[in-house]
Give the backbone structure.
Amino acid sequence: MINLMRNLPTLLLGWLAATVLLAPARSAESIEIKEYASATQKPIPIALVGYTGEVASVLKFDLYVVGFATVEESAAQYTLRGGNSGQVEGRLTDNVSKAVKFGKAYSGGSLRTQAHALADDVVAAVTGKKGIATTKIAFKVVRGQNSEIYVSDYDGYDAKAVTHDGTVVAAPTWMPGARRLYYTTYKFGNADIVWHDVGTGERKVFARYTGSNISPAVAPDGRHVAMILSKGGSPDLYVADPDGGNLRQLTRTREDESSPCWSPDSRTICYATKMGGRRVLATISASGGTPRRLPTSGVANPSEPDWSPDGKWIAFTSQMRNFEICVVPAGGGETKLYFSGEDPVWAPNSRTLIFTRRSGGGRVLSLLDVLTKQLKDVPHSLGICSQPTWAR
Amino acid sequence: MKRTHFLNALAVALTLVVAGVGCKKTPKSVTPIPARTVRAPGPGTGPGPLGGGGTVPNQGVGENNLGTKSTDLGPGTGGTPMAGMGKFEGYLMDTNIFAAATVHFDFDSSVVKRSEYEKADSVVEQLKLKPEDKLLIDGHCDERGTEEYNRSLGERRALALREYLIGKGIGGERIRTRSWGEDRPVDPGHDEVAWAKNRRGEFILLLPPAGQ
């Protein structure tokens, strides 16, 4: 991997030369050479003592994707000692100060659920921040020529289809703090946006205007939904109330706006568009106004922005030779590349990303801890998965 | 449930006293974890209120019951606004008649190329002969773009063809568009031959509902 990083500029240069010779004219920007970012934090070494089977693997996975590394006790800064016979128990010790951070036993649910709860307690005790081990995701799964929306635990476990439309269904997004998804379905002969209560199964048309109704994004305060509509003759950014009423058009361009997302204060929308012939990210006030370009220096062809819940970062996809997962300060600036992949979405902890990774013609979901660069594929076997969205 | 962390009822239930687990001298605390409350939408709870088939009951929000109207954006801004969805409801799709008229695009481009004019012109001729019929244009992309970027790009392609037809005298109110992004490739391959086939605009004739 280190060699690959070192050789990357050379490889890219070679590719660039080949492109100039062989490729037909293309309007997307050409590649700019850029290396992958280094980790900014070392993993926190922790020893897991006394756990077996599923509980051991859940704890290990949960802690890995938020920046811990499981090691032998002699090398560990923290030791989590306990067991999982009948119920999950755990006592966390700081091996430097010898202080016991907590001791807990868990009841109810499955052993797996109890292990997730213990992992979150470790995260809270060590970092002071809320964990993500009991969160949910939704995503798109390809089924032949069609696709359906699935909901699962954040680690892919317990995946269930929430649509059975038998056509293309895409771009799920959660309403924050609710069991409601918004997504696009082609079930009714058009690309329409619907909302869907995954608790009750109730589903209603949200936007069915002439043309495409795509890429919904619910504001963190739950009071508005951004989307792309083409009823005006060009794909533009619109905002409506959560029931679809009070529709307002925010952009009026001939370009193809796409992939809106919201700032945590629900005041600003970031989206992908073109300015001066270049593909860029832009921000606009949710109440309308002049769009502003978001500088993403060092990368080309950005799309699919996602604003971190703490407001500090915007993750997005850059399309150069491959698709690259990028992170830029929310005010714009130097962009860091992390991995090949697309459609990154922040976890509620503002440090873990879930994204789509192309692999041998298929697509899998991956979890990336941005600070330590620790990466794990979501281990399920549903086939081609993409467009993850985190319940947060 | 509002404003609480979705499905984190677990965390709420974690009202705990720190105690030494495994230490027999101190009573250990037990964290109750409630049973999972997520209901998987099974056959009984799955979407259904919308009904099946090609028509959608007049519920939820649409052009008709919102009263929202497209505004003319003037030259240089958007394209030609569309007629309301109600003007197209009930029309039957003929996907065969224009099968030979599928238009292809360059990478990441929605420009209708000169080489494709003839195919688009054949659609214009037919539409002029069938004034009662309408048209649906489907835009498609290759896989070399992110999914929602491609969904917008595919729409831009369909809209570019729509503007071309409008320029040839077909009323914009007769044409609606739909983008499939990269979801419906004609060639599942991962090379330029496949990609070139997949970057396309397809014409679907819309026949008036029986009795009209």
Summary: The radius of gyration of chain B is 26 Å. Residues 125 and 168 of chain B are 10 Å apart (CA to CA). Chain B touches chain A through 98 residues (CB under 8 Å). Residues 87-207 of chain B form a domain with the 60s Ribosomal Protein L30; Chain: A; fold (CATH 3.30.1330.60).
